[in-house]
Write a structure and sequence with these properties.
Pfam families: PhyH (PF05721). InterPro entries: Phytyl_CoA_dOase-like. GO terms for molecular function: 2-oxoglutarate-dependent dioxygenase activity. This is Phytanoyl-CoA dioxygenase. By secondary structure, this protein is of the alpha+beta class. The protein has one domain: Jelly Rolls (Sandwich), CATH 2.60.120.620. The chain is 25% helix and 25% strand. The chain contains 7 helices and 15 strands. Strands 2-10-7-12-6-5-3-4 form an 8-stranded antiparallel β-sheet. Strand 14 and strand 15 form a beta hairpin. The longest helix has 13 residues. It is globular and about 50 Å long.
């Protein structure tokens, strides 16, 4: 089945206005209180499982939960092959223009893939029932699939840049990210790192990049959790907590990221799919496509 996908370039103006407001709210307990009030006015579902409850409890406590693998090694390879053929860009160096991953300029650390939603399977992955349940428990209402992204981390750089340094995300008042490795990730390919419990602590609240030593002084080195593993490894994380993607050393890493949110964020992908004679609009609150 052939799909042509067009994405809105900008979120609605009210989303930008709320982003400016919520960025000023830094303390985790106040952010949660605001989010809890908002969630009472948003739709809920009846999805309740024992597995979802256990995963949610781990997420709530430490800031992440490892998910049951929803793709096989073979499917990870298929997705990697499809994404390898797609155009990339460096989100931190837009002046480099667009390129194929095999022809990436030497200065590129992160090669983001331009149009991942040309692969419909990625939306099916984002709609995984257990992932949606975990997010709903965390938000107190049905989650929005706010965006789907994928990028390569490329080796050959001595110094970390941008998100390769520890930081807190400030994407919205309440959000989660679902990370899925599409390549095997070792110490050589830049594993993701999260600081356990930092999503709850009012320490290091400035919006900036941090040195490891700064965050170790705040939380302790024993709180650093490094994610290495086989292709298909996946985990949901509250990235308001401190995290980073370590620079790749000798091997490339391909990562799929799905952002779930309480409310639309400035990163919202509003997608329209033309499937031959049908035009479908994505309903952010049902996480489904609706025929217009």
């Amino acid at each position: 089945m052939n799909y042509t996908i067009n994405s809105r370039k900008r979120a609605p103006l009210w989303v930008f206005a709320f982003q400016l407001i919520q960025e000023k709210i830094r303390k985790p307990h106040i952010r949660k209180a605001v989010a809890d009030i908002i969630s009472k006015f948003l739709p809920t579902s009846e999805n309740k499982t024992i597995q979802g409850e256990k995963l949610y409890s781990k997420l709530k406590e430490v800031g992440y939960c490892e998910m049951p693998n929803i793709i096989t090694t073979e499917e990870a390879d298929e997705l990697r092959d499809s994404l390898t053929n797609m155009i990339c860009f460096d989100p931190w160096k837009p002046y480099l223009g667009k390129f194929n991953i095999e022809d990436a300029p030497k200065e590129v650390h992160t090669a983001q893939i331009e149009n991942v939603l040309a692969i419909p399977r990625l939306l099916e992955i984002a709609n995984n029932p257990i992932a949606l349940e975990v997010c709903e428990r965390y938000f107190g209402c049905k989650p929005i699939i706010d965006s789907i992204q994928a990028w390569w981390s490329l080796p050959g750089h001595e110094k970390a840049e941008q998100a390769e340094n520890l930081h807190r995300d400030n994407d919205g008042i309440r959000f989660l990210k679902y990370f899925i490795y599409l390549t095997e990730v070792t110490e050589e390919s830049g594993p993701h790192v999260f600081v356990e419990g930092s999503h709850l602590e009012p320490k290091g609240l400035d919006i900036r990049r941090y040195e490891d030593t700064e965050v170790e002084a705040l939380f302790g080195k024993n709180k650093f959790r490094k994610f290495t593993g086989k292709k298909g490894l996946s985990f949901i994380e509250d990235t308001y907590g401190f995290h980073k993607g370590q620079p790749a050393k000798t091997e490339k890493r391909l990562l799929l990221q799905i952002r779930y949110a309480l409310m639309p964020t400035i990163f919202l992908n509003k997608n329209y799919i033309n499937n031959f004679e049908k035009k479908q609009e994505f309903d952010i609150y049902s996480n489904k496509f609706l025929v217009k």
